[in-house]
Design a protein that fits this description.
Blueprint (H helix, E strand, L loop, with lengths): L1 H26 L6 H9 L3 H25 L1 H81 L3 H15 L7 H59 L10 H4 L1 H9 L32 H12 L3 H19 L10 H24 L6 H23 L5 H20 L5 H32 L6 E2 L2 H10 L5 H5 L4 E2 L5 H20 L6 H28 L6 H16 L1 H12 L13 H28 L17 H16 L16 H23 L8 H19 L16 H12 L2 H7 L12 H17 L7 H26 L1
Antiparallel strand pairs: 1-2
Helix pairs in contact: 1-2, 1-3, 4-5, 5-6, 6-9, 6-11, 6-13, 9-10, 11-12, 11-13, 12-14, 13-14, 14-17, 14-18, 17-18, 17-20, 18-21, 19-21, 21-22, 21-23, 22-24, 24-25, 27-28
Length: 821
């Protein structure tokens, strides 16, 4: 029952739905009927729907039929009228066709004209669009063309600015065009090209700077020299302005140059062409020689491109390499001053450029980098100068080198570089300069001493006299009163040596200039160097002359006279040094000159050489002695060799009358050296004669030989008594021969009893006779007595004498043994 009700209810819902669909089909436009029909097929009752649709169609057909039956007559009338209209319509169609044909024929040209007009209008529209697009693209192309022109003319910094405008302003407006894409793709390449070209310009600049560093340095040093000269002039005049340009003034040139060498000025050469200036013209500024625009442009370009750090590292690396090359001195630099000058010019040129870069760029180089380079340069420069200056043997070259180093230091000091170490090194070179001066003056002194005639200087006029006195401080009232011609006591080497000592002092003073030393330090330096000159160089030169083999006694005497006067002149040398250094001798720690000691030593050496030479001459004469020790003849005159020897001694001691009085004892005995030489000669002669008598080769001698020897000794004693040199007291000189005299008297007088009896007593007559000497001589006579057959008829007397000799010999041996015990 329930099921039946449910089926009935579902059937009613389906029927209602189908009815709705049919109404929609009837009322809906045919084009929109699809969704309605789809809803039918989506359901499961489309069969029943078809039935309902057929039923609805039949109902409409019946209504149409009813309606037609009702309006049939009207329909027939309408058909009839329609048929009439069709005929008229055919006529109208024909007329329209004919009209259309005529119209087409007549409008054919118009159509052609319209087509042409259409094409023109299209072209006009296209042209207008093209012009608009070209107007939009034209600035891009102009900017690109400008970019290429700027790159072609190497105006890289403006090119980079143009590239930025092109990339950020113009290209975005026409980015959809293919050529713009090509430009956009080409922009990184253009940037790299600008970087490469600007870097190439920088490399050319660095290479040019390296080649022209010496020119830049030379100009900077000329400026420093001119400034120093100007300062010296200002110091001599009232101060009007500042002593030296300030650092700010120095860089005024640079600031003006920055404006002219900004990236827009586009000057690419690293070194400007500047003709060599004459010495009397103003020297151009070192910065005027350099165009730094390549550095500025490259720095700006790399900064804009975000690669500033890369640029800074590259620049510093390359400049460090160049610094090492500049600081490498040539191997032959020490040969000429030009070698040192070129070396200094390159270093100064390098640091002038770096100093300018430091003050005209922001951060390309900094003070720490400059200080690091300068420390390296300073150490290498000082090492190179120490090495190469040690090869210099010419004091003039060392002095010129010192002046060049001072100028080098002053130039760099203007630019703010510390140069104290250079001045410290100059103090080391000062010692070397002193050594080279000493070597040079050694040759000068040697030439003076070798060329001197060792004779007093003769003068024949007042003019000549004043000339000598002007060269050497000499005052002698007695000599001044003497008439012309007259002679100075010293030879020519005295004023020459004195003036050369002054020249040496001047040479030392020259080196101390511009070293920023105090007067006391300069004075101390000069005095120490002069002392070395006196105590070492001059002293050695004098000693060499004195020790020369062929030097004569006259020359030695003159050397003693000369050194005496030079010794007196030492106080004038002290005054001379005081005058040029303005340091009083009484100042604490002032070094004293050792000239007095030097000349005293030389004089003593000359005196010793006189004594030695005299003794050698005596030995030469003694070698001529030819005694016949076995002779029995009694001679009546001295030996010829001894007569010649005495004559030589007399003539020699006559020379000594020219010797001066002692300096320390101006009132003392004149000729003390002559007295000493005479005493030394007599003692040496006596000793040599004693040795000649006792030498081992003389195994036998006779009384006749002793008599001849006694005559020779008497000749010597006669020479001693004659007073060859004044000043000896009584028989002082004869005492040199006392040993020989007593020995000969003992043997000739055969006074053995007195000798043996008084031996050892202070009043002994033969006090100077040594028993050993007496025994030796007695043994020579004993052998002779035994072998002598000349007095055969007196054999008894000979036998008695022989016994006496044996007895005396025995007693002498007893004295000798008792003396030793």
């Amino acid at each position: 029952m329930d099921r039946g009700k449910m089926a009935e209810a579902e059937s009613l819902e389906t029927a209602a739905e189908h009815e709705r669909i049919l109404r929609e089909i009837e009322s809906t436009d045919t084009a929109c009927i699809g969704p309605t029909l789809r809803s039918v097929y989506d359901g499961e009752e489309h069969g029943r729907f078809m039935e309902k649709l057929e039923t609805r169609i039949r109902n409409h057909d019946r209504e149409i039929e009813k309606m037609c039956n009702f309006h049939y007559q009207g329909f027939v009338d309408s058909i009839t009228e329609l048929l009439k209209v069709r005929g008229e319509a055919q006529k109208l169609k024909n007329q329209v066709t004919d009209t259309n044909r005529k119209l087409q024929h007549e409008g054919k040209e118009l159509v052609i004209a319209m087509e042409e007009l259409k094409q023109c209008r299209l072209q006009q529209r296209n042209i207008s669009a093209t012009v608009d697009k070209l107007m939009l693209c034209l600035p891009v192309l102009e900017m690109y063309s400008k970019l290429r022109d700027q790159m072609k003319t190497k105006r890289h910094y403006p090119a980079l600015k143009t590239l930025e405008h092109l990339e950020h302003t113009y290209l975005p407006q026409v980015s959809h065009y293919r050529f713009c894409k090509v430009m956009v793709d080409n922009i990184p390449k253009l940037r790299e090209e600008i970087k490469d070209v600007s870097m190439s310009d920088l490399k050319d600049f660095l290479e040019s700077i390296r080649k022209h560093s010496d020119k830049i340095g030379e100009t900077a040093m000329k400026q420093a020299q001119q400034q120093r000269n100007l300062d010296n002039i200002i110091l001599q005049q009232p101060r009007i302005g500042s002593k030296r340009k300030s650092k700010k003034d120095t860089y005024t040139i640079f600031d003006a140059e920055i404006e002219s060498t900004s990236p827009k000025s586009e000057q690419d050469s690293g070194i400007l062409d500047v003709e060599d200036e004459e010495d009397d013209e103003e020297v151009p500024g070192a910065q005027d020689l350099v165009d730094f625009s390549p550095v500025y442009r490259c720095l700006h370009i790399y900064s804009v491109l975000g690669a500033r750090e890369t640029f800074e590292n590259y620049y510093r690396k390359q400049r460090r390499k160049q610094a090492r090359l500049v600081l490498q001195p040539p191997s032959n630099m020490h040969e000429t001053l030009d070698g040192y000058r070129k070396y200094f010019n390159q270093i100064v040129g390098f640091f002038v450029v770096e100093d300018h870069i430091l003050h005209t760029t922001q951060g390309l180089v900094n003070r720490a980098y400059i200080d690091e380079l300068w420390e390296m340069a300073l150490s290498k420069t000082i090492a190179a100068l120490r090495t190469h200056s040690s090869y210099c043997s010419d004091p003039n070259l060392v002095l010129d080198l010192k002046n060049l180093i001072v100028l080098f230091a002053d130039t760099l000091q203007v630019y703010g570089f510390p140069v104290n170490q250079l001045f410290d090194m100059l103090l080391e070179i000062r010692d070397q300069y002193s050594e080279t001066l000493l070597k040079k003056w050694s040759g000068i002194f040697r030439n003076i001493l070798d060329s001197d005639n060792y004779s007093p200087i003769p003068v024949t006029s007042e003019e000549m006299y004043k000339k000598v006195v002007g060269q050497f401080p000499f005052q002698d009232t007695e000599l001044e009163k003497q008439p012309f011609p007259k002679k100075f006591p010293f030879s020519e080497f005295v004023p020459k040596v004195y003036n050369q000592i002054k020249e040496f002092i001047y040479a030392c003073l020259k080196f101390s200039e511009d070293l920023h030393l105090s007067s006391t330090e300069v004075d101390d330096m000069i005095r120490k160097s002069t002392n070395l000159l006196l105590t070492r160089t001059l002293s050695n030169s004098l000693q060499n002359v004195i020790k020369r083999k062929n030097i004569g006694l006259t020359e030695l005497v003159q050397i003693i006279i000369n050194t005496t006067h030079l010794e007196k002149s030492c106080k004038y040398l002290e005054e001379f040094i005081t005058n040029i250094t303005n340091v009083l001798p009484e100042t604490v720690h002032t070094t004293k000159l050792y000239g007095t000691t030097t000349f005293k030593d030389a004089r003593h050496a000359a005196e010793e050489e006189i004594y030695t030479n005299l003794n050698q001459k005596i030995d030469q004469f003694l070698q001529l002695a030819d005694y016949d020790w076995m002779t029995g003849d009694l001679g009546n005159k001295a030996s010829d060799y001894l007569v010649d020897l005495i004559a030589f001694l007399r003539s020699t001691f006559a020379v000594f009358t020219h010797l001066p009085k002692r300096m320390r004892h101006p009132q003392g005995i004149k000729g003390k050296v002559a007295q000493t030489a005479c005493m030394s000669a007599c003692k040496h002669l006596a000793t040599s004669l004693m040795q000649l008598l006792l030498e081992a080769e003389v195994r036998q001698l006779t009384l006749g030989a002793l008599q001849q020897f006694n005559l020779d000794v008497r000749e010597c004693e006669q020479f001693a008594r004659s007073g060859p040199v004044p000043g000896f007291q009584e028989d002082t000189l004869q005492l040199a021969f006392i040993d020989l005299r007593q020995l000969l008297d003992l043997f000739i007088q055969w006074d053995w009893s007195t000798y043996l009896a008084d031996y050892g007593q202070p009043t002994c007559k033969y006090l100077r006779v040594n028993p050993v000497t007496a025994l030796t001589l007695l043994e020579k006579m004993k052998d002779t007595s035994r072998k002598n057959n000349m007095f055969a008829q007196f054999r008894k007397n000979e036998r008695d004498k022989q016994k006496l000799i044996d007895t005396v010999a025995k007693q002498l041996r007893g004295l000798i043994s008792s003396h030793h015990s």
